[in-house]
Amino acid sequence: MTTPAPTVAPAPAKTNAGRRPRRLAGAGTVVRRRLLVAVPILAATSIGMFALGAASPIDPAQQYAGAAAFTASEENLAQIRANWGVDDPLPVQYLRWVGNLLQGDLGWSTSRHEPVTSVLAARAGWTLLLVGAALALVLLASLLLGTLAAYRRGGWFDRALRATAYAVQSMPVFWIGLAAIALFALTLGWLPAGGLTDITATGTDPADVARHLILPVGVLAISQTPWFVLFIRDAVAESLRDDHVLAARARGLPGRTVLFGHALRTALLPFLTLVGTHLPELIGGAVLVETVFSLPGLGAVTVQAALGSDFPLLAATTLATTVVVLTANLATDLGYAAADPRVRLDD
What we know:
single chain; mainly alpha; MetI-like fold; 13 helices; 2 strands; globular
């Protein structure tokens, strides 16, 4: 009688999940922690904006009435105040405003004479398009120019690029915008001076919009590029002296492979942090660019709301900007952990 051969259980197949690096293992925990931090930040921001609005000497009833306030009776103005509850205690007004905010009611814009939600819905997309296109152009130009300057550090290209970056960095963004209009729109006549479409346009043609956005996107990108170019230049120059880059050179790898495959890859990690922390300044620059070029984005209405003491609209745009900045910082941390295997979110 022969003894049957022992059966060997097949080894469990390695799944993609098992082979996948656990770089984002603690992403859920980080998101929950950031949400806990975001709540008091948003609360403090809203309280500050609400306190500024309450301290304003401007009567909200007269703002709502507009030109009719000069002929309106005191009884009508008092009725508007009663309907809005502006005579209630400040804590009551704030809690009512927060309750309406959680329900999607952001209030009434006294400068635009329409609901704040309608203002944001109609204009937020154009601001996001301007900021997104400018950011993509900044990243592409800074990575290319900064890397080449680091590779040829000390040469004429490096010196010229740094001098230009320092000069542009000292120029206000509105001055760059006005100079661009004077040169490319008024003198050369190549591009329109402002607006989103031509005056005679009856619709929104994508080609016409793209032509009108060339100057605003270029001005915003030029005003923000020096920070990123100088950072990439210094980071890549430092990375070129690292041991693994010197070893790659010693193995006889081509200069392009050493530069873009080793030095630039190491320098990109702190570059992610710069992108996240520099986003508020990019948004602030977009406000000025939209004002100079008369674009129908949130920047123009924010300036109009500030000049007209439109606190409901100012509070909404400030909260929206705060949410964008907090989200960008969270995305930066997650991107850093995904790019660098040494960073663990669950530590």
